[in-house]
Amino acid sequence: MNGLSFGVIRVNTEDKNSALTVQDVGHVMPGGMMCIVKPDGPPQLCKTDEIGEICVSSRAGGMMYYGLAGVTKNTFEVIPVSAAGSPVGDVPFVRSGLLGFVGPGSLVFVVGKMDGLLTVSGRRHNADDIVATGLAVESIKTVYRGRIAVFSVSVFYDERIVVVAEQRPDASEEDSFQWMSRVLQVSPLRG
C-alpha cells in the first residue's frame, strides 16, 4: 500500500493484508477523451502504473474562467506532453482536480483530490486520509469530529505535516497526549 504515497499503483497484489481495494468509477463518457498527467510541473503524461491528475476533453466540459486568462490557460487549455516534452496532440484537456489512474479494461479510478495533496519527503499524502486516521483512533472522547485541520509547512528545506485538532473541554492533557501518540503509531506518514 506504500506505493500510493509514491504515486504508483499495483494491480492484483498477492499480499491481501497490505492491499487496498479501490472501486472504479466506470469508463470515459462516449465522445470524450481522458488522460492522466503528473500533478507537478508541465502536464507530462503518466506511465501506466502512475497516479496523476485526471484531465478530460469533452464537449460537456467548461471552457474558461471569465476574466482570468492565466488561470484559464492552466486549467482549461492543457496540452499533454511526452517524457521528452513534446506535445502529444493538439486537443486541449481540462484539469479535473482529481487524482486517479486508468486501470485494466480502461476503467477510471479516482483516489483523491489535488487540493488535499501534501508532498513530504517525496511521498504524497492525502489530507482526508490523515484526518480519517486521527478520527479512527478513539477520538470521540478527546477531540471534536469535524474540527481537525491538516496542512504542511516548510522546515529547513523539507515539508512537515501539521495536524491541528480541537480538544474537548472534558479531555485532559494526558488524554490528548495518549491520543496523539496512538495517531502517530498508526499514521500513514510512518515508514
3D architecture notes:
This is AMP-dependent synthetase/ligase domain-containing protein. InterPro entries: AMP-bd_C_sf, ANL_N_sf. With 191 residues, this protein is of the alpha+beta class. It folds into two domains: 2-113, Luciferase, Domain 3 (Luciferase, domain 3); 121-186, no CATH class. The protein has three helices and eight strands, in the order E-E-H-E-E-E-E-H-E-E-H. A four-stranded antiparallel sheet has the order 1-2-3-4. Strands 5-6 form a two-stranded antiparallel ribbon. A hairpin with a 2-residue loop joins strand 7 and strand 8 (158-167). It is elongated, with a radius of gyration of 20 Å. The relative contact order is 0.14.
Salient structural properties:
Luciferase, domain 3; AMP-bd_C_sf; alpha+beta; 3 helices; 2 domains; 191 residues; 8 strands; 4-stranded antiparallel β-sheet; two-stranded antiparallel ribbon; single chain
Q: Could you write a compact summary of the structure shown?
A:
The protein has 191 residues and is α+β, with helices and mostly antiparallel strands. The chain folds into 2 domains: 2-113, Luciferase, Domain 3 (Luciferase, domain 3), CATH 2.30.38.10; 121-186, no CATH class. The protein has helices at residues 69-76, 127-136, 173-186, and strands at residues 33-37, 52-57, 94-102, 108-113, 117-120, 123-126, 143-155, 158-167.
